[in-house]
Amino acid sequence: SAVISQKPSRDICQRGTSLTIQCQVDSQVTMMFWYRQQPGQSLTLIATANQGSEATYESGFVIDKFPISRPNLTFSTLTVSNMSPEDSSIYLCSVPHGGAYNEQFFGPGTRLTVL
Amino acid sequence: LAKTTQPISMDSYEGQEVNITCSHNNIATNDYITWYQQFPSQGPRFIIQGYKTKVTNEVASLFIPADRKSSTLSLPRVSLSDTAVYYCLVGDGSFKTIFGAGTRLFVKA
């Protein structure tokens, strides 16, 4: 199993500002994923971050709004830029587990509130 | 990626067996069926995965009929701590997983 930590655990931000969320894994992994979970909703995949290459974004998500860094095999950041209240969500990172297909370990999430 | 359909919510009492059924009519040959559990303020946690027939682990059982167009997650003798959202996912291991709406299970004393 993998142990994943995220910082900050929660934050309250003003509209128009940006927040960078950190994701740290206790083992080296090639792929990391970033998800968004809006209040009371399911999870939506934002992007896949592979070390050594640019992140791959899902439909509806763009790099200018959600820039991602992946400087090494244990760390990634997601920035939520020029925030609006609609960005209020929980943001989660995850890494795949080598055992089963589609098995992922998730971090605890970062709860973001934009005023 | 196959879309999944689950009941929005279910209620149960402690000690009962709970069965949550997921419909995935467009499942592909290479797809596996995976279930996750999510508690409030936590990330989802992998519960069980299967391809066909029955899979059982220490937490749950997963029943998959021969046509694989549906699956049933069975939780034996639930407790209050099993109150959570349960997600059914279908995918081929490419990790481009799509989480459906999930089923909110509420276990009452």
Please provide a written account of the structure.
The complex is a heterodimer of chains A (115) and B (109). Chain A is 0% helix and 51% strand. Chain A has 115 residues and is mainly β. In chain A, strands 2, 4, 5, 6, 9, 10 and 11 form a 7-stranded mixed β-sheet that branches. Chain A has a 4-stranded antiparallel β-sheet with strand order 1-3-8-7, with no helix packed on it. Chain A is globular. Chain B is mainly beta and 109 residues long. Chain B is 0% helix and 48% strand. Chain B has strands spanning 9-13, 18-23, 32-38, 45-50, 53-56, 61-64, 70-75, 84-91, 103-108. In chain B, the strands form 2 sheets. In chain B, strands 1-9-8-3-4 form a 5-stranded mixed β-sheet, with no helix packed on it. A 4-stranded antiparallel β-sheet of chain B has the order 2-7-6-5, with no helix packed on it. In chain B, a hairpin with a 5-residue loop joins strand 6 and strand 7 (70-75). The chains are: A mainly beta (115), B mainly beta (109). The A-B interface holds A 4, 31, 33, 41-45, 48, 92, 94, 96-97, 100-109, 111 and B 32, 34, 41-46, 49, 87, 89, 91-93, 95-102.
Summarize the model shown.
Chain A has 115 residues and is mainly beta.
Q: Pairing-aware structural class of the strands and helices of chain A?
A: mainly beta
State the helical fraction of chain B: under 10%
Gross morphology of chain B: globular
User: Helical element count of chain B?
Assistant: 0
SSE order of chain A in H/E notation? Answer: EEEEEEEEEEE
Tell me the β content of chain B: over 45%
Kindly report how far apart the N and C termini of chain B lie: 38 Å
Major sheet of chain B: 5 strands, mixed
Give the radius of gyration of chain A. Answer: 13 Å
The largest chain-to-chain contact, stated as pair and per-chain residue counts, equals: A-B, 24 and 22 residues
Number of strands of chain B: 9
Question: How many beta strands in the DSSP annotation of chain A?
Answer: 11
Query: Can you give the mean pLDDT of chain A?
Result: 93
Low-pLDDT residue intervals, each spanning 5 or more residues of chain A? none
